[in-house]
Amino acid sequence: GNSVTQMEGPVTLSEEAFLTINCTYTATGYPSLFWYVQYPGEGLQLLLKATKADDKGSNKGFEATYRKETTSFHLEKGSVQVSDSAVYFCALREAASGGGADGLTFGKGTHLIIQP
Amino acid sequence: NAGVMQNPRHLVRRRGQEARLRCSPMKGHSHVYWYRQLPEEGLKFMVYLQKENIIDESGMPKERFSAEFPKEGPSILRIQQVVRGDSAAYFCASSPPVGRTYGYTFGSGTRLTVV
After folding, report:
1. Which residue in B60, B61, B63, B31 sits closest to B46, CA to CA?
2. Considering CB atoms only, which of A51, A91, A98 is closest to B31?
3. Which of A12, A76, A108, B62 has the smallest count of CB within 10 Å of its CB?
4. How far is it, in rounded angstroms, from Cα B16 to Cα B39?
5. Residue B1 pLDDT > 90, yes or no?
6. Alpha carbon distance B47, A12 (integer Å)
7. Read out DSSP for A24-91?
8. Cα A35 vs. chain centroid, distance in angstroms?
């Protein structure tokens, strides 16, 4: 079955530091890949996505490149801010019809803490 | 175009009572998913529904939990005879009928506290 593995947190960085959150996946087919962000007390928001190999998703200064050869989708940001403190979830979706638990598979989430 | 609407935002129930959580999907979305998030844990899939059909309930506890998505009205997640361990954030998400390129749109969640 499909699975997503993220680096465990919490990840603590100083403001303006470079961020990488690793994400690797296992899929039987050809998935689309997503990063979601959850701010404290809120639901998940789609941060960025990539739908085919070598695509780069980007939003709000965050980037991730779909690497089929290494089955990875690492999240990066050049200079983090305190407001980036949140939990980040990597996810994949493979089923053409959105079927059930395999429709969107999440990693366990990485808690990011940015200190001023 | 309103997003996924969940209500109530916060719900407090005494042990043994029933909890009803509502979710209205985005306009045009016919697929609804419920997830549970326990403190300091990730998202756990519970159930996937389409209108009047439960497609996959493999993540639902066998007892006390049920879900529906009627032809008219919101999707309902029902928890009967709640216990303290049911305290969690429950998130609903919706998606269009087809397309692996679509992610889900999530609601803001219902935070259930059982006292």
Report:
1. B60
2. A98
3. B62
4. 22
5. no
6. 34
7. EEE-SS--EEEEEEE-TTS-EEEEEEE-STT-EEEETTEEEE-BTTTTB--EEESS--GGG-EEEEEE
8. 3
**What SS3 state is found at A2?**
coil
Q: How many residues does chain A have?
A: 116
CA distances from A89 to A44, B5, B62 (A): 9, 21, 27
Of B104, B108, B113, which to mutate for an interface test with A (greatest number of A Cβ within 10 Å)? Answer: B104
Q: Rounded to whole angstroms, what are the CA distances from B90 to A41, A45, A83, B23, B79?
A: 12, 15, 24, 10, 11
- Note the pLDDT tens digit of each residue in B61-105: 989 999 999 999 999 999 999 999 999 999 999 988 766 667 788
Average pLDDT, rounded, for chain B: 91
β-pairing, A86-93 vs A110-115, is antiparallel
**List of residues 6+ apart from A71 with CB closer than 8 A:** A24, A25, A26, A27
Residues of A in contact with B4 (CB under 8 A): 43
Cα(A113)–Cα(A20) distance, integer angstroms: 13
Q: Which of A51, A106, A109 shows the shortest C-beta gap to B101?
A: A51
Question: What is the number of other CB atoms lying within 10 angstroms of the CB of residue A48?
Answer: 20
Compute the nearest-CA separation of A97 from chain B (Å).
Answer: 5
Closest CB to A101: pick one of B45, B96, B104.
B45
**CB count in 10 Å sphere of residue A1:** 9
- B-chain residues near A101 (CB < 8 A): 45, 48, 56, 58-59
